[in-house]
Amino acid sequence: MMSYRRLVPLVFLTAALALPVLGQDYFFPYYGKNKVVYEKFSWKTYPTEHFQIYFYVDDVNALKNIAEMAESSYRKISGELKHQLSEPVPLIFYTTYTDFEQTNMFEVSEGVLGVSEPVLHRIGIHGDMSADELQTLITHELTHIFEFEILWGNLGGALYALNQPPLWTFEGLSEYFTGEWSSWSTLILRDTVLNDRIPELAESGELFSRYPLPREPAYDFGHAIYEFMESRFGKNAIREFFQSLKGGSPLLGKRDPLKKAFNMEPREFSFEFKRYLRNRFKDFTSRENPEDYSVPLGPEFPMNPYYFAFSHAVSPSGDIVATITFNAMDGDIDIVLMSIKDGKILRNLTKGYTSQYEYIKYEIDSSLGRSLAWSQDGDRLAFFARDGQKHTLFILDAITGATLGKVKLPLDQPVCPSFYPDGQKLLFSAFQKGVRDIFVLDLATEKITNLTQDDLFEKAPALSPDGTAVVYSIRVDTYDKLFLSPLDDLKKKKQLTFGTGNTVTPEFSADGKTVFFAGDIKDAYNIYSLSLETGELRRYTDVRTGNFFPAPIPNNPKQIIFSSFNKGAFQLFRSDAVGVVEQTLTFADIGAGEKFKKFEPILTLEINKDKIKAHEGMGKLYVASRPPVDAIVSTDGSIYGGSALAFTDILGDYTFSATAYQVREFRSMFLGYLNQRNRFQWAVNAFQYTIYYYPNSYYYDPTLWSWTTYQDAIATRKITGVSTLAYYPLNKYVRAEGSFGYFHYEEEFLDPSNLGLGSGATSGYFLNGNMVSASFSLTGETTRFKRYGPAAGNTFRVSVSQALPVAENFLHNTTLEADLRKYFYLGADFLFAFRAQGFLSAGRDRFLGYYGGNNSVRSAYFYSLVGTEYWIANAEFRFPLIDAASTIVGPVGPVRGVFFFDITRNKYGDYPAKFYRWDTDTTSATYGNLLMIDAVGSYGYGVEFFIFGLPVHIEFAKRLEWPSISKPFSFRGFGNFKTNFWIGFDF
Amino acid sequence: MKKNSGFLILAILAALAVSCATESSVKVKVVIPGSPAVRLDPYREIVVAAFWQETELKDFNLNQALVNYLRDEIEHQFKGKLSSKTISWENAQMTENKDFWKQLLPEPQGCLILTGKAQFTQDVRKALLAKDRRAIDDGPFTPEKAWAARKSFSLKLGIYLIKPDTGEVLFQRDFQEAMDYEGQKQMAEFAFFDLLQKIKLKLFRLLFGSEKIQERYLLSR
Known about the structure:
The complex is a heterodimer of chains A (987) and B (221).
Chain A: H1 10-18, H2 24-27, E1 44-47, E2 51-55, H3 60-81, E3 89-94, H4 97-100, E4 114-116, E5 123-126, H5 131-152, H6 157-160, H7 167-178, H8 183-194, E6 200-201, E7 207-208, H9 217-233, H10 236-243, H11 252-255, H12 257-262, H13 266-280, E8 294-298, E9 306-314, E10 320-327, E11 332-339, E12 345-348, E13 359-360, E14 372-374, E15 380-387, E16 390-397, E17 403-409, E18 412-419, E19 425-432, E20 435-442, E21 448-450, E22 458-463, E23 469-476, E24 479-486, E25 493-495, E26 503-508, E27 514-522, E28 524-531, E29 536-539, E30 546-553, E31 556-566, E32 569-576, E33 580-584, E34 588-590, E35 613-614, E36 622-623, E37 629-633, E38 639-648, E39 654-663, E40 666-675, E41 681-693, H14 696-699, E42 715-729, E43 734-749, E44 769-781, E45 784-786, E46 789-803, E47 814-827, E48 830-842, E49 849-851, E50 865-867, E51 869-882, E52 885-887, E53 890-907, E54 915-918, E55 930-933, E56 935-947, E57 950-962, E58 972-983
Parallel strand pairs in A: 2-3, 3-5
Antiparallel strand pairs in A: 1-2, 1-35, 4-5, 6-7, 8-32, 9-10, 10-11, 11-12, 13-15, 14-15, 15-16, 16-17, 18-19, 19-20, 20-21, 22-23, 23-24, 24-25, 25-34, 26-27, 27-28, 28-29, 29-33, 30-31, 31-32, 36-38, 37-38, 38-39, 39-40, 40-41, 41-42, 42-43, 43-44, 44-46, 45-46, 46-47, 47-48, 48-51, 49-50, 51-53, ...
Chain B: H1 2-20, E1 24-32, E2 45-49, E3 52-53, H2 62-75, E4 81-85, H3 98-102, E5 111-130, E6 145-162, E7 169-181, H4 188-208, E8 212-220
Parallel strand pairs in B: 2-4, 2-5, 3-5
Antiparallel strand pairs in B: 1-8, 5-6, 6-7
Helix pairs in contact in B: 2-4
């Protein structure tokens, strides 16, 4: 599950590729970024007793590990739930996260380790983790498959299921069966319990928290609820509770599974659960709060917009600390400089948005090490960012934030950079083909050298101040242990820490004689130091929650900076390094060939190579998602509705779709095939769609003025045809598209008699006939979106389409279109948005463009502006009013305001580029005359509010007219403010 | 044809009658308190003893699973102590052998013995069923009906509560549950727990008087 997240249905992409003029274009007016398939994987399959494993890694041992882990997980879960799955589970294994991101099955984002989906019971995972973590992940995802089948039956059952129990019932059970509490999970749990912030179980059965939590409570508190069930009602209770969720009402509360399984009301259950948690952590209540012995530095949210200190690096001068933090105002990750003296924010080095990278990388799992490094001369800061297929090292000017250099890395999940003393090289750890090693990067030549080249899981390397030694951690079985090696030979190892518990994020003292680190031998992570000369182990803290990333201050070795998790957030603290001696350790030299204890699954399997088959072609096709139901309302009051059905193969690379939409009485149908197997993607479509618009000549025809409304002049355009489309993403932001197709056009007035015309009457500019055309377009979108729509960045699309001279009686034209947008984010969700659109159709049978209404030209009626050439310019100032409101119809929000201005010019064929209107101003000297206007537009204001996820607009627009465009400031208003109501996203 | 039309008209009339009715109803949830069939409060300990089992199952120790399950589940409801005991049954009529039960425990006062008879069977049933077509690559000419097999399991449980000081049967009820499974690989052990869970709900209602939730409709005109 998302782990599943909001899947963008494949049919949307199909439709977007094929039908740019269909309804979602004006409901959801964005072009989208690209999912780039950088590599074509040679998929193979291997069957085990309960799985069909899809993989492309050549290493049979990797397949053996996956197979053993999967079957081990199956045995465990099946035995506990007393349930067997009816079909083998498709387990799709990607070697790395960046490979996984290219999947067409799921929509994954950074931080997603695995996905399981309820319809086809597929599991997708990647290998960027240690063996024990991978085992835990497989158990988690496989538990979901058991849950889906128990609740909704075998394959496809979820498509028809209305029963959707609360998330915690799923995620909690999946976590429970892993049998593992990660340090991050226990940290969250302990923090909420000790600070009396435990989420409540509502009558509806949902878990909700009154306080912000660093992650969805369904995981950790769901896990804890199942542990509570076991403790209070026995192990059988787990199975019986989940069985009791089957069938019945979609709401947990109405089905009363708690009552059924345990004879308890949700309120009573919640009370008992909280008591259980408090009892579980009672031993921690006497431990310290970080403020008991340290000076909090911050970031002091909400005094400033920076929330969390994910990772930090102390400057060599010892007076500044650089921190990776979350900028709540921008909704973005930033690097800020803070004063070590008082925590004051000195500068945001990555202010605003950039298209240099997608995001700054940081790790919630502290054991992977720092995400920032400061060069010893104090001039440069290094960090990793997601950029393109993999990652890029960025080096910033530590004062100005200017980018001094960047190096693309062909590696995965790089973390923990450390500058060499001379600043010419940089040490870090990363995955290479699924194995985590330590690397060195020569900044001048960009040459990368793997220093370890083994199958050990090395993490968090830190260089000694003189650059001769490196201290790091290795995952030994299921614990991280510290090791010391000479930098010139990492095969020589000295093990520094032993026994149970993790010891992570080592950092040398300024004199290189002591190593500071965080360790969880006392369950919570505390700060320790280890003398490399005497082996003296000293503990500095005994905290309730957790302290991480100790960093001695260079010019004041008696003080350390560390981050501590408290009340739901990481903050930086400065403390005197006064510790107690715990013990004296004796270090162990590890020989080059010495083997470490490795994690082993409970089952061992032999791989029969004959059963490994290449996975080629489509195989079976499935309905992989529930058909969406869309409904749109436009300013002319028309309602647009429709749905789509898509069939895909098991890997989601090939999609067949059928789409049907209706607006007013006009129906559109579409059949499509989309091939997303490679970076070059293509589609074949057959379609018939009918669209409508309001030809303006009749609206302004003086003889019809008293008799008709603009809506009586409705015209329809029916397009029937077949086309092929090709799509090639140049990168995540820019793509080239081409198409070739045959189209048959039929245009007519819907009811000519309304206009006083005879049956079958047509306008002179209607197009009827056949056309073969080719088109090419370039589309780019760097725009960053927030939950209300675009916030910052650029979007553009330019396209040209040419009708080919196949036959004399075929339609013949050339059409150019452009759409340029720019968003200036001012902060705190205030922004300026600009758009310029142009349309030009030339040739014998020119196309008509039609627009107006909604947010194009607001004072015009919907689709009532028509021309063979036109341009529109929009400028809007958008601002927040209410973030979220609880109303009698449910939550409404965000509520936003807008001031807008728009202007358009329009030309039909060889006629003058004029708009026409009777002068109705009785005081005017030209009263009763036909006025010719160069340009029209609007200004006004409005509000937008989101209800049930739909952006609803109520706006007040006044028409503006420019008699002469050469005098842009000689405009005038016309008429009263008109009230518009429409549903759709802002451009 | 005529018959079908008549049925259709009747169905439409019935639907209209329902839709035109002026009655409205409010659905309410009622918790029905259950009174136990036997009072367990006076007893300090329940000893769960092995059951008489007519047929042994291969690869599954039914008696052990049953005794462990009942012991664990009752432990969470019963305020006294729970323990288990292995006994060897000579025949199914041993429940009537008071002497046997009287000499079973060294300190029978305040104790109850929970035991009984268990019969767990499985078989495969076949039928002609409509084909479940979810993949579209089966082709257009595949038969619409296909033979389908279901694995059926049945559990009969006779529960006895015996007073060890007198050897009398204090409480006795028979339960029977059956379930069919589409999956032919369904393991007997897993099916056993599904069936046992159903029996537990009924048994515990009798032993502990568990509340029962019912949905009722309040009618108003």
